[in-house]
Amino acid sequence: MPDYVPISLLSLLFVLVGLYVVTQADRYGRTWDEGVQDQYGTATYLWYRTAGNDTSFLNFDPSMHMPEHGPFFEFIVAGAQFAFDGDHWHIRALVCGIAGAIGIVAMALCGYELGGWWGAFLAASGLALFPRYTGAIFNNSKDVPLAVFMILVAWLTLRLVRRWSTGRRWAIDAGLLGVLLGMAISVRINALIWVGVLGLVALAWWARNGRAAFRGGTWWPALRKQLIAGGLIGAVTYATILACWPYIALNPVTGLPHVIANMSAYPWDSTILYNGEVVRAQSAPGGYVPRWLLVGSPLPTVLLGVAGISLLALDLIRGRVRDLRVLIGAALFFVPLAMLLVMRPVLYNGPRHFLFIVPGLILLGVYAVQRVAALLAARRAPARSALAGALVLALVGGYAHSAVASARLFPYEYMFFSPVVGGYSGARGKWEGDYWSACHTAAVEWLLRNRSRYPAASSPPTIGGVAGDGANVPPGWKPTFAAAGDYFVSSDFWPMPPDFEVIHTVRVDGQALCSIGRAPARA
């Protein structure tokens, strides 16, 4: 099939994603975390703007460990908010959405490296049709940007391997890889995992080429080149971290080890809802990650990923994998997954903490599709056409089902659940749903439109159930956090006070997400 078909499809996808970002940024609710993340970004921006004189980013509640959280993307958001006139929260949502769109473009670049134009289209569409990614790009400024930077890091690694033997261009790619890896680590420390991936790439090269290098006397030039590239990547990575992370810039020797120690045993031990049971985050079952990948992903993504894993394993056994870049794409999934399973870090809020491994699962699915396509191409025409048609129909049907389920959840697609557990309605009450209380925005907006019908006793009114950082608190109102005020926004975390009158409920897919309550009249 000519290249213009996947190129046209990919171009259409990019246009649709761009329109989605521009037109839908204001439709998605502000989450429980966004207020404090926004404040952290502003404080970080002021540190740079004042040449280090403003150190307010160090003044957050110590229990939140904010300085130890990577601030780089929050700094980008704050920079845009200071640079452009407009609504503060709209600019934030738009910048986050643009970052999410860049991730889809980066997936296309990875797919192109691995499988040409069809690989680019399949990879980009796989991520665009992943509801827990696309449905979170406007209000998740931590996990989605990490996934975006990890995809970009994977792409530059793929390009570095491809251009390894082409003059000195490898040095440029190594330097750029260091910059992007440093930025990724400065978003979330989890990106440090990629250092291990780069080490595995070097080992894989020696496993394949080492014997010939020793026989031909070229082992030392090859090793020296790898050492130079590794040193360049390491130096540029750390320099970028120092430039992008004020806390580590102020503690250049002890800062990074402290962050690694703190985040690998993050002191958060509240309860989570997991498979119908309430468990503590620090004692979550060992199958937390794979099970959430199953129940929180579109079924075609999981099935294609499993097929890709099986086919890749078979090809490795038979010695058919000639391109190391295929293993790099797989490493984007396998290496973080192995680390999560072995180290058992504190995880909560569904799959958001390991969203960055999903692109690797999608790339494995792309590998499966292209391997099956190659197998079909070797068959006779009648059988080839029938099998290819069945495969296309199955893929389109599976993703169409996910798209319909996502549309029913709009604008809360980050609560998507697989048909394996009965979709969102079947998972309700068994798995974490609106864990960030994004529905609070819709609830408060309704209250502001209808406040005259339900007047409050005090002026300005007080409101409970919402975070007191300003994200969903109406201007001038007084937040009471978990305590009851004149009004109360209930959620999975904060139930409605028993004597409050429920005046409105936000629903999605027939299920109640949160409610607005009014305090009873006082005599």
TrEMBL record:
Keywords: Membrane, Transmembrane, Transmembrane helix. It comes from the Bacteria. The keyword Zinc-finger does not apply. The keyword Transport does not apply. The chain crosses the membrane at residues 89-110, 117-138, 144-161, 191-207, 227-248, 292-314, 326-347, 353-374, 386-410. This is Glycosyltransferase RgtA/B/C/D-like domain-containing protein.
